């Protein structure tokens, strides 16, 4: 069978995967690296933090990092699920195993974050501790500022991201396996001049299952990207309108009515409308449409999520209306915009 000769290089289109890996690292704020079954990197390190770069460049500290990587991957394989642990510097790392027919072919390594809720560290195993306290204390002065710059996350956020990465890997593996099996069966069929049945080619294949995984993955990517794609400074100088602006920017996938936003600000719809036009220079409906098209462009530029799903994620009633509004503001359709942006 073709599956016996599969390697991570055959399962993953590494060029496309590395682009996705970079996007995932940007969205999740995690550093991400993909390795083969021997632990050798098959991609570059996406968003590697300066602290970890310095530690790994230090010949006396690098062996501890390598031992953590090795042990983390081993524990992930053993449990056949993402393994979340603390490295020798008490930094959170994740090992997501890539397994086919009980055969370990590689892993996605992610992490380089601090726990925002230190009490949850009790739930995690520190995978390696060093008895060389003198070594660590001598290095700390040059590392402490970089350590303080590490992003922090709650344990719940880390769990959510690790599950998403596992889901993504499973989807890619399953789809690649189906393609390989399909190619193998048609090779055999062409040699015998017979026409294979779908049930013979992929007896366990479930299109619904694949589509469900893909949709769930896309939903996560869209939500994560929109929730971390800037917009830190909400453009509102009027304190009366601030609750409405905050709600809109925190619930990008909802449909907003002028009355609901006015109620949120505890003023009448007519007064809200006048204040809003004065603040933004346009009416509520136009401003909202323009804002959602801005978010749509970000998703088109940074992800491969289908246009219909972007429409749904941003609260448009149906894709046709989304395309119409997008064309009104950008002069082209979302599909054409994505094509020319990505070249």
Under CATH, the topology of the largest domain is which?
A: Beta-Lactamase
Runs in which pLDDT lies below 50 for 5 or more consecutive residues are 195-207
Number of domains: 3
Within CATH, the superfamily of the largest domain carries the name: PAS domain
Strand content: 5-15%
Distance between the termini: 38 Å
> What is the alpha-carbon Rg in Å?
24 Å
Arithmetic mean pLDDT: 80
Number of helices: 15
State the total count of DSSP E strands.
Answer: 6
How would a crystallographer describe the biggest sheet?
Answer: 6 strands, mixed
User: What is the SS-derived class?
Assistant: alpha/beta
How would you characterize the overall build of this protein?
- This is Ligand-binding sensor protein/AraC-like DNA-binding protein.
- Pfam families: HTH_18, PocR.
- InterPro entries: Homeodomain-like_sf, HTH_AraC, HTH_AraC-typ_CS, PocR_dom, Tscrpt_reg_AraC-type_HTH.
- The chain has 343 residues and is of the alpha/beta class.
- The chain has three domains: 2-155, Beta-Lactamase (2-Layer Sandwich); 171-227; 242-342, Arc Repressor Mutant, subunit A (Orthogonal Bundle), CATH 1.10.10.
- The chain has helices at residues 8-11, 14-28, 50-57, 62-79, 133-148, 155-192, 198-201, 207-227, 242-250, 258-265, 269-280, 284-302, 307-313, 319-330, 334-342; strands at 31-36, 83-86, 92-100, 103-115, 125-126, 152-153.
- Strands 1, 2, 3, 4, 5 and 6 form a six-stranded mixed sheet that branches.
- A hairpin with a 2-residue loop joins strand 3 (92-100) and strand 4 (103-115).
- Helix 6 (155-192) runs antiparallel to helix 8 (207-227), helix 9 packs across helix 10 (258-265) and helix 12 (284-302) packs across helix 14 (319-330).
- The longest helix has 38 residues, at 155-192.
- The protein is globular, with a radius of gyration of 24 Å.
- The two termini are 38 Å apart.
- Residues 195-207 have low confidence and may be disordered.
């Amino acid at each position: 069978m073709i599956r016996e000769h599969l390697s991570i290089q055959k399962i993953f289109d590494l060029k496309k995967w590395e682009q996705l890996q970079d996007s995932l690292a940007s969205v999740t704020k995690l550093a991400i690296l993909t390795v083969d079954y021997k632990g050798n990197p098959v991609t570059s390190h996406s968003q590697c933090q300066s602290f970890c770069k310095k530690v790994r460049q230090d010949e006396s500290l690098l062996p501890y990092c390598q031992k953590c990587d090795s042990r983390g991957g081993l524990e992930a394989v053993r449990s056949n699920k993402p393994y979340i642990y603390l490295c020798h510097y008490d930094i959170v790392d994740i090992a997501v195993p890539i397994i086919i027919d009980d055969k370990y072919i590689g892993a996605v390594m992610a992490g380089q974050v601090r726990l925002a809720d230190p009490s949850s560290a009790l739930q995690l195993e520190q995978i390696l501790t060093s008895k060389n306290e003198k070594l660590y204390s001598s290095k700390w002065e040059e590392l402490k500022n970089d350590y303080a710059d590490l992003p922090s996350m709650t344990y719940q956020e880390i769990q959510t991201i690790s599950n998403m990465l596992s889901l993504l890997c499973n989807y890619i593996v399953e789809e690649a396996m189906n393609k390989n099996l399909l190619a193998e069966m048609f090779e055999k069929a062409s040699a015998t001049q017979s026409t294979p049945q779908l049930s013979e080619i992929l007896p366990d294949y479930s299109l619904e299952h694949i589509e469900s995984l893909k949709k769930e993955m896309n939903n996560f990517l869209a939500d994560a990207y929109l929730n971390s794609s800037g917009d830190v400074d909400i453009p509102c100088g009027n304190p009366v309108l601030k609750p409405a602006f905050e709600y809109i920017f925190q619930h990008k996938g909802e449909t907003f009515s002028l009355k609901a936003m006015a109620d949120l600000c505890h003023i009448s719809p007519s007064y809200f409308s006048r204040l809003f036009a004065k603040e933004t220079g346009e009416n509520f409906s136009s401003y909202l449409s323009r804002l959602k098209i801005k978010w749509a462009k970000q998703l088109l530029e940074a992800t491969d999520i289908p246009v219909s799903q972007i429409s749904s994620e941003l609260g448009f009633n149906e894709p046709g209306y989304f395309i119409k509004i997008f064309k009104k503001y950008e002069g082209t359709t979302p599909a054409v915009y994505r094509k020319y942006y990505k070249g």
